[in-house]
Amino acid sequence: MAYPPVLALRGICKRFGGVQALLDVDLQVRAGEVVALAGDNGAGKSTLVKVISGVSPADRGVIEWQGRRVQIRRPHDAHALGIATVYQDLAMCDNLDVVGNLFLGREIARVGVLDEVEMERRARDLMRTLSIRIPDVRMPVSALSAGQRQAVAISRSLMGSPKALLLDEPTAALGIEQTSHLLDLIEEVRDRGMAILLISHNMGDIKAVADRVAVLRLGRNNGLFDVSTVSQEQIISSITGAADNAVAHRATGDGEGWP
After folding, report:
1. CA–CA separation, 219 vs 147, rounded Å?
2. What residue spans in the chain does CATH classification 3.40.50.300 cover?
3. pLDDT reported for residue 122
4. Is the dihedral of CA 200, 84, 63, 207 positive or negative?
């Protein structure tokens, strides 16, 4: 049984000067599902993430959160609703250890003194719960592999118990084994009831963990597919516009021999 949408966008538009980055974009993400957002460079994927996260508010359109209309004008608004975002650069502090990064800005203190023991305990519990393999939560993040850093960034985003998670190309800099571990983590988070929007160019990643894939092309919706039934070729055709060209070719009568 499908859950109602946690996040729903209707008619989202965003312009930067003379560039129409998004035009009438619709999107829904439900609890307990991964929706992949695919598209070529310049398709509007990152802009849409910035709209949802409050970094770059929409010029026009409707955003609904758990069935009610909301305004997301700044990152604080998104955080307050329960939307967490992990960007490609991860925004980690290399000079801090894993505990320091997890609790940065939300440190636990007792009588005005940081409670390092409690923060370390919670960090270990979180790593264990999510099956994240980190040798020592007191290691500086600069000593971690790219996959471990990505896992820590995702873990940090979950500290406030959000209901929706936006992941911007999380496997872009990872090797095969690290990617496999991260996809397992995404599935683990999804199975806990999280609504996940996964921005990715990687068809393998999309087929591995996504339930649906929404395609943007030139700032517009250009297809919504059930991953269990769609072929990789269909997704790529929607991304490149090949399917649109074929339809236009038939419509103009130039496609002699088409059914």
Report:
1. 31
2. 1-82+165-259
3. 93
4. positive
Class of domain 1-82+165-259: alpha beta
What would the pLDDT profile of 114-145 be if each residue is shown by its tens digit?
Answer: 999 999 999 999 888 888 888 899 999 999 98
Q: Determine contact, residues 165/158, Cβ cutoff 8 Å.
A: yes
Please report, for the chain, how many H helices and E strands are present, in that order: 9, 12
Report yes or no on whether pTM surpasses 0.70: yes
- The pair of structure tokens assigned to 191 is 């199975």
Tell me the C-alpha distance between 124 and 119, whole Å: 9
Q: What is the predicted pLDDT for the residue at 2?
A: 57
CA distance readout (Å), 74 to 23, 176, 259: 20, 36, 50
Q: How far is CA 218 from CA 41, 238, 256, in A?
A: 9, 11, 28
